[in-house]
Give the backbone structure.
Amino acid sequence: MELLAVQLKQEELCTVKDLALQHGVSERTITRDLQLMREQGLPIDADRGRGGGVRLDRNWGVGRMNLAYPEAVDLLISIAVAEQMDSPMFLASLGSVRRQLVASFSPEKRHKVNRLKARILIGSTASTYVQRTINPPPKRVVQALHQAFIDQGSLVIKYQREDLAESKRTIEPHYLMLNYPVWYVIAFDHLRNGPRTFRADRILSADMTGEHFRLLPKDAFQETLDRNGLLI
């Protein structure tokens, strides 16, 4: 329905028949989706005259976004990261946005989001050498790491060290740390039976195992952070 809402806002008038043809569904399906959108509060106007159609009020938009819970969590965490980095640019309204997002959550979900935020650490800026060697990690790796971090689920990863040697590990991603612009995964490594730090862009593949872990305190990882020269 998101694509349908965007189309209705951008175009003057769309007939149900044309919408059904464009989206490859029946007119009945389009009619049902339009009704659901109205029930969700979207101001859909209908012109029943000759050559008429339906459209979404163009003034609708800002302040009326309907975010799914995972999307709201991601946005809230992104705001928290920006605030922790203390950048002077574009932060004037972030506090207001954050408060509105938090207010939309139930107390239980607020607690969950606060726990997630506490697991994201902001360190110092990465060295020039490190910045020259970074590459964007594969999208599938980012998605798996994101899900495992939120769900406290373990991952099987293929990891490439600086000397290009590769190894297969089962890890528990307890914390994420940003040494701008490089992200690190602070994890319990089952291969080494202890805490280890992995550069996210050196993870070549990642798959969920279906197993979950109990969160360890940050202090349990301080030694490995010190060993890797990562400063919080």
Observations:
- The first helix runs from residue 2 to 10.
